[in-house]
Here is the input.
Amino acid sequence: MNIFEVKQTMLDKGIPTEVTEQFAFPETKAGTPEEKIAFVNQMDSLLSREQILTVMQEQDDGTLSVSWGYEDKGKYVCICPRMKKLSQPATVFITFCGCCSGTIKHGFEQDLEVKLQFIETASSPLSSGGEKHCEHRYEIIENQKENYKNG
Here is the structure.
């Protein structure tokens, strides 16, 4: 969550300035996890439920990130059956994980009834030495459910 974008969304959605001035915004764009939790807690105490939903739903940038992973001995492990056959620990360029990104894309298009455009394989256990989980990013380019309703 980019709290600076949330602040702008609050203003765009008509949250009164006298309310937004009560928030303690972090000093930096990134913000620490503690600052983000404190900010969300402030939202719960200063905004109505409807205002919170209005602001938070605007934080979707038209993309879908799919992440997963499990840890073994403090390291993320790849779930790819092909990789499990390699001598461990194995390190592979992230490009290889595009195969998994394509498989996920197809499954999510079917399940969510949307058309996705692959953006990137953002991280993987194989390319990060087990420091990061799998994350695949897609842009939602067409909502097929809407097409069925309108067609």
